[in-house]
Specification:
The complex is a heterodimer of chains A (418) and B (183).
Chain A: E1 35-39, E2 51-57, E3 60-67, H1 75-79, H2 87-91, H3 99-114, H4 120-149, H5 152-173, E4 182-183, E5 186-187, H6 195-218, H7 221-227, H8 235-241, H9 246-250, H10 257-260, H11 281-305, H12 323-328, H13 330-341, E6 349-357, E7 360-368, E8 374-380, H14 382-386, H15 390-394, H16 399-409, H17 413-417
Antiparallel strand pairs in A: 1-2, 2-3, 4-5, 6-7, 7-8
Helix pairs in contact in A: 3-4, 4-5, 4-11, 4-16, 5-6, 6-11, 11-16
Chain B: E1 5-9, H1 14-23, E2 28-36, E3 55-63, H2 76-80, E4 81-85, H3 90-99, E5 105-113, E6 119-121, H4 131-141, E7 144-146
Parallel strand pairs in B: 1-5, 6-7
Antiparallel strand pairs in B: 1-4, 2-3, 3-5
The chains are: A alpha+beta (418), B alpha/beta (183).
């Protein structure tokens, strides 16, 4: 069975042509014989509460528009009332499939404003946790993507492997999700005893299961037919629309902040930036599957190279005194109390920091007025921007493919709406 | 972390600057957000000649290191924008700019927007990806982007009153504003 698969490379961003975005609902259908229908927000395959307006010509999508905001809880506003130490508990709930990345970007921004260096071990622990989190996030994608397309058994397998990773994260951070583990100044606690074995065990468990996914999905004709040539987008369209992450890479454009604008210690580990060549749903699936392998490769190197030393900065300004000191010193008790009630003050300034989350460029724009709470915290959520590409991918696709296309964008509504 | 080049164009120079950045290889406008400086009107980090206003819109542009020509030769920095780095040292900015045109980097553009005339030209005709970001700023701060094809609320319900991320918009005690809800 062969699938006609054309690359989207020639597709250019048509600024003057009729837009595939259904902006004006009041104006009605764009031509005779089409119908505007609503999809979601409570639809099992819309990944939470994404709502779509679809203009259909029979089974074919002519124009569409994602409508968001159903999960808006004002987290950026809440962030202005929390201290820098409480900040990670807030931002971690944005992208709930990759919470550690949110904590990381917030902590990096705060440290940049403080002008603070963190110990190497803290950097490497952060990197270890982030790559484990990338695995769990991409495994979640494999599960939901399988379910959306009809490979329901894949949902169980993806969830099963993700659970292995989450169990490990629980062992390290205390929680399966919303860890509040990466904090300004370092991480909350050192790695537990025997962490190397636990981490390697998870790698050894997940890696062969990825081979099983290949057997179940990658080489399967139905799977390929559902994904290949569906939801094609080109590099030019991605760049114009601000799209980043696996979607941009699926068009054959090697752009990954970990490699191109390295942060943490990504310069010291070996990994490949994976690109596709067709820019379709299948490439996006394959990139995420193989990025799990790359993450496993990185995790193994990190276990080997993990430096010794402090897991958080010894700067008294942001780090409370050790627990034992509190019993013997009044000053230590006051110091501890001050840090956790008033928080620490951050010098005036503004900063933009970005990391490569499993969904693309995750940025944090932080403005401090010199107090212990941010004056403005803005999170540049990759899903929020990536969703703009939906109408361009969906134009001319079937309604059944629309579900596959939404899935391939892998939006997390928590960070879309914040 | 490397410091980012920061430009401070005037309101009406933003579109021109963005067009020059786009021509210069800044291929994506990665982020667009606004800040309400109501509670701290006296800011020291603005360069001379830039009068602080209540609102500031911040755009972050990225180049992937494949510039067609250097920004220095386009005259952007000398004519339409004064500059400062995050440390506030203009000489740093100049060296930074010359050495970094072929390496991936970001550039931050901060525009002052007055309270009595909260609008800006839209960047959507240059960077189409800013459409939703501009809608978010409009929704949250009430700053209009002239030329945005779909300037409607994006996160809040259509019939919502007020702009939640303004500093004078109180947290809590917000009456339920949804249609049909008992008041």
């Amino acid at each position: 069975m062969s699938v006609l698969r054309t690359s989207g490379a020639e597709r250019i961003f048509r600024r003057d042509a009729a837009s595939p975005v259904l902006r004006d609902l009041e104006a009605g259908p764009s031509r005779e014989g089409t119908m505007i229908v609503n999809m979601g927000p409570q639809h099992p395959s819309t990944h939470g509460v994404l709502r779509l307006l679809l203009e259909l010509d029979g089974e074919v999508v002519v124009r569409s528009k994602p409508i968001i905001g159903y999960l808006h809880t004002g987290m950026e506003k809440t962030g202005e009332t929390l201290t820098y130490l409480q900040g990670p508990t807030n931002v971690t709930r944005m992208d709930y499939a990759a919470p550690l990345f949110n904590e990381l970007v917030f902590s990096l921004a705060t440290e940049e404003l403080l002008g603070m260096e963190i110990p190497p071990r803290a950097t490497w622990i952060r990197m270890l946790l982030c790559e484990l989190n990338r695995m769990s996030s991409h495994l979640l994608f494999q599960a939901t993507n399988g379910m959306d397309i009809g490979a329901v058994s894949m949902m169980l397998y993806g969830w099963r492997e993700r659970e292995e990773v989450l169990r490990l994260l629980e062992e390290i951070t205390g929680l399966r999700m919303n860890h509040n583990y990466i904090r300004p100044g370092g991480v909350a606690a050192d790695l537990p005893d025997g962490w190397e074995e636990a981490v390697l065990r998870v790698c050894d468990t997940v890696e062969p299961r990825l081979e099983e996914y290949d057997v179940l999905l990658t080489s399967q004709p139905i799977w390929r037919e559902r994904l290949q040539g569906v939801g094609v987008i080109s590099t030019e369209e991605c760049l114009a629309l601000g799209v980043t992450g696996p979607i941009l890479r699926s068009t054959g454009y090697a752009w990954d902040l970990r490699s191109n604008m390295a942060y943490l210690a990504y310069e010291d580990v070996d990994f490949d930036v994976l690109v596709g060549s067709y820019g379709d749903c299948f490439d996006r699936y394959a990139i995420r599957l193989n990025e799990i392998r790359e993450s496993i490769r990185m995790v193994r190197q990190i276990v080997e190279k993990m430096p010794k030393g402090d897991y958080r900065t010894q700067d008294k300004k942001v780090t409370p005194p050790p627990r034992a000191r509190i019993d013997e010193s009044m000053e230590a008790l006051i110091h501890h109390f001050k840090i956790f009630t008033e928080g620490f003050k951050v010098p005036e300034g503004e900063v933009y920091v970005a990391v490569e989350s499993p969904r693309g460029e995750l940025g944090c724009y932080l403005v401090s007025d010199g107090s212990s709470k941010p004056m403005r915290i803005h999170i540049r959520a990759p899903s929020f921007v990536n969703l703009q590409a939906l109408p361009y991918m969906m134009e001319g696709a079937l309604v059944a493919d629309a579900v596959a296309i939404i899935s391939s964008v892998d939006p997390i509504m928590g960070e879309v709406d914040r | 972390m490397r410091s980012q080049l920061v430009l401070h164009p005037a309101k009406d120079e933003l579109a021109e600057l963005a067009a020059k950045l786009e021509a210069d290889g800044y291929c994506q406008c990665v982020d667009l957000c606004a800040v309400d400086y109501l509670t701290s009107p006296d800011r020291l980090d603005l360069p001379d000649g830039i009068a602080p206003q209540r609102f500031e819109v911040v755009a972050v542009f990225i180049t992937h290191g494949i510039n067609r020509h250097s920004i220095a030769s386009s005259g952007v920095t000398s004519e339409v924008a004064s500059e400062t780095t995050s440390q506030g040292n203009p000489s740093d900015a100049a060296t930074n700019e010359n050495s970094a045109t072929n390496t991936p980097h970001r550039i931050r553009v901060r525009v002052q927007v007055p309270e009595d005339d909260p609008n800006l030209p839209s960047l959507t005709h240059i960077y189409p990806g800013t459409e939703n970001m501009e809608r978010e700023i409009y929704d949250m701060f009430g700053i209009s982007f002239l030329g945005n094809p779909d300037l409607t609320r994006i996160l809040m319900p259509d019939e919502w009153q007020g702009h939640p991320l303004r500093r004078d918009y109180a947290v809590g005690q917000v009456p339920v504003q949804f249609k049909g809800a008992p008041s």
